[in-house]
Specification:
Blueprint: E1 2-5, E2 13-14, E3 17-18, E4 25-31, H1 38-57, E5 66-72, H2 77-89, E6 96-98, H3 102-115, E7 119-121, E8 136-138, H4 143-156, E9 161-167, H5 170-182, E10 189-196, H6 204-211, E11 218-222, H7 227-237, E12 244-246, H8 253-259, H9 261-264, E13 268-271, H10 287-301, H11 307-326, H12 331-339, E14 344-345, E15 350-351, E16 367-372, E17 375-378
Parallel strand pairs: 4-5, 4-6, 6-7, 7-8, 9-10, 9-11, 11-12
Antiparallel strand pairs: 1-5, 2-3, 13-16, 14-15, 16-17
Helix pairs in contact: 1-11, 2-3, 4-5, 7-8, 11-12
């Protein structure tokens, strides 16, 4: 499925006489606007379309309008690779944004690397940018960073023994691996370790095993999609009575709606400033950015802003900033400018990239959040 966004050029006609056509800067995207990851990809698609309209209305980039060529891969890695290839070979884009999930991102990476076109991913796994790949960047915090932020909070609360339940999808498996790798750095023992499949509708047996493990003080769910909502409901039904931590992969109002406010009460997770925009201090450097995006998105779409749309917001802003600084729409010049991004304030954090860091965020960009009375609160 292909969605093409174009915006009328500012000076196409004057007194009924057409001016010379302006050059366009063609950027491509493949996201999961439909399918099992649509709660991630739909706000990404809408955000990209909205921002391109805004940028063109303001005069484009270096005086040239953007043309967004947008495909919906439905969360299918094979389709994502096909669309990425089409974007490069047929649509001749100068950069690609997308890869809503880790799976679709990993299928796009070889296309971007082989074609030498910069690619900014919207997925979470650390493998996307570690080891560093010359043409590949990303905007979400990594799953390793999410583990570290969660374990920091656990350590602060004297939690040393936990149970882990993880999805078997790409995101869940990657985050599980990263959490296991860094748990010891925070003095945390994983005493129980369970998994669930993407199609599982009841995680009660796994949670019962964790509940019955002696000494467990908290539970961490490494997963995204509908699974964490089911885990949260089952957890409440079992009255486990221990702190429940979720991943940044469910940091949205949609998670609370799916799980139910009562069941989600007290759930803790690392999230972005966007989720708590109204709670940010006036001096917070991200406040004006997140409030502007939140206001524009909610007015345009009639739906609540989400962390995932924020990833797309930051990707496009990084790309536009880089094209502007490069003074060129050539892929190599854009790539070099992305890598030199410094102090760019986004919804996810303040981005400063380097040759050995194609994310540009640290743990301070995460806010530790807790769900209270059906909404988000900052707990540190």
């Amino acid at each position: 499925m292909k969605i093409t966004t174009t915006t009328a050029l500012a000076t196409l006609m004057a007194l009924g006489i057409a001016t010379a056509a302006q050059a366009e800067i063609k950027i491509g995207a493949t996201v999961s606007a439909t399918g099992p990851a649509s709660f991630l990809g739909d706000p990404e698609a809408k955000t990209l379309e909205m921002l391109v309209e805004e940028i063109n209305a303001a005069g484009g980039v270096n005086g040239e309008p953007l043309k967004l060529v947008l495909y919906d891969d439905g969360g299918d890695p094979n389709k994502a690779r096909t669309f990425a290839t089409r974007l490069v070979e047929d649509d001749e884009v100068v950069a690609i944004i997308g890869g809503t999930t880790t799976g679709t991102t990993m299928s796009i990476i070889p296309v971007a690397e082989d074609s030498e076109v910069p690619f900014i991913s919207l997925a979470g796994a650390i493998e996307i940018i570690d080891p560093v790949k010359h043409w590949v960047f990303k905007t979400p915090h990594t799953d390793r960073m999410a583990c570290q932020k969660i374990f920091e909070n656990m350590k602060k609360n004297a939690i040393t023994k936990i149970g882990v339940i993880s999805g078997t999808d790409g995101f869940g498996a990657s985050m599980h691996k990263q959490c296991v790798a860094v748990a010891g750095d925070y003095g945390i023992e994983i005493a129980a370790d369970e998994t669930y499949g993407l199609q599982d509708a009841d995680m009660t047996p796994q949670l019962t095993n964790i509940k019955g493990t002696a000494g467990v003080q908290a539970v961490l769910n490494a997963g995204f999609g509908q699974g964490p909502s089911i885990v949260t409901r089952n957890y409440s039904q079992l009255a486990v009575g221990l702190p429940l931590y979720q991943s940044h992969g469910v940091a949205s109002d949609g998670f609370i709606e799916l799980a139910g406010a009562k069941a989600a009460e007290g759930v803790r997770l690392p999230g972005t400033a966007l989720l708590v925009a109204g709670l940010l201090a006036d001096g917070d450097p991200q406040k004006s950015v997140v409030m502007a995006y939140k206001t524009a998105y909610e007015k345009k779409t009639g739906s609540a802003v989400s962390t995932f749309g924020g990833y797309a917001h930051d990707a496009l802003r990084i790309l536009v900033d880089s094209i502007g600084r490069a003074g060129s729409a050539e892929p190599e010049a854009i790539r070099d400018a992305i890598e030199s991004t410094s102090g760019l304030v986004g919804t996810t954090g303040v981005v400063t990239m380097k040759a050995d860091d194609h994310l540009g965020l640290d743990l301070s960009a995460f806010r530790m959040l807790e769900i209270k009375n059906g909404g988000w609160t900052i707990i540190e």
